[in-house]
Amino acid sequence: MTTSHDDRVREQFRLQAGTFDDRGWAARGLEWIVGQLRPGAGDQVLDVAAGAAHLGRALAPHVRHVSALDLTPEMLDQGQRLARSAGLGNMAFLVGNATALPWLDGQFDLVVCRLALHQVADPAAVVREMVRVTRPGGRVGVTDMITEEPVRAETNRLERLRDPSHGTTLTLAEIHDLLAAAGAEVTSTATQDQPLDLEDWMHRTATPEDARAEIRERMRTELDGGPETGLRPSRDADGVLTFVHTWATTVAGIPGFTSNV
Is residue 206 part of a domain? Predict the structure, then answer.
C-alpha cells in the first residue's frame, strides 16, 4: 500500500514540478514560517519531503547548511535550479523517503517539513524520523494545512478528487499528538489562512474534468446553504470561486541538553 501511494506521489509531483517556482502560491507563507522557526546562524537544517525546497531555500541564508530530501527527482531538480540561480551554495539535495531518513540519530539542529504531512501515507512515521534525526535541544517544525471535525471527511474527499495522491489532512490536535508520541514537546503553534483560486488549484494537478465538475458543484452547494466542505468557498462579483486552506506551523523541542564545552 505504501509503495503504491509513493508511486502516485511521484507521478503527481513529476507533473507539477514546473509549477513550483518562486512566484505566487508555491512561495506563500515562507517569511511567516521562517519567523516561527527562528533559525540560528550555526544550524544544520534538514528539509523533509522538501519538494522544490521552498522552505529549505528560505532558511539557507540564515543557517550553516540545509539538506533537502524528497521522493520525486523532478521536484528536487527544480529546487536545485532555483537554489543555484539564487546563489545558495550551502544546500544539498537528496532523493529519499521521509519514512526512512538516511541519517544517524541527532544529526540536525532544526528539521522542518512544509505542506507534506497531508500527502504521505504514514505521517506518524515521518514525524518519528524527523524527531529521531534532531539533536537533543534541537527543534522540529511542521507546517501543514489542517482541518477539523466534523468536516474532515468531506475535506479529504474533495482533496482526493482533485489529487489522488492526497493522503489525509490532519487536525491540529493530531499533529500535536504525532509530535508528542515521537518524543517532542510542542512549544508554539501559529495559523494562517491561505485563499486559493479553485480553477488554478485544479489545473495544477491536471484534475480530470468530471472530478472538477463535481468539486465545483460541491462548492456551489455549500454557497447555496448546503453542508460545509471545510474549505470555506466564496464567489466574487464576477462569479470566480475561491476557497481557503488554513495552515498551521507547529514548533516542537527535543528534550535534552548538549554541552557547551
Answer: no
Domain count, the chain: 1
CATH of the domain at 162: 3.40.50.150
- Contact assessment for residue 47 and residue 68, using Cβ atoms and an 8 Å cutoff: yes
What pLDDT is stored for residue 1 in this prediction? 40
Put simply, whether the predicted model's pTM sits higher than 0.85 gets the answer: yes
Cα distances from 74 to residues 9, 10, 61, 63, 77, in angstroms, run: 12, 9, 24, 25, 5
In this prediction, residue 15 has a pLDDT band, given cuts at 50, 70 and 90, of low
> Which domain covers residue 149, as residue numbers?
2-195+246-253
Check if the beta carbon of residue 135 is closer than 8 Å to that of residue 106: yes
Mean pLDDT of the chain: 91
| Cell numbers linked to 226 | 448546503
Nearest to 106 by CA among 49, 189, 184, 186: 184
The set of residues, in sequence order, having a beta carbon less than 8 Å from that of 34 and lying 6+ positions away, is 55, 58, 59, 62
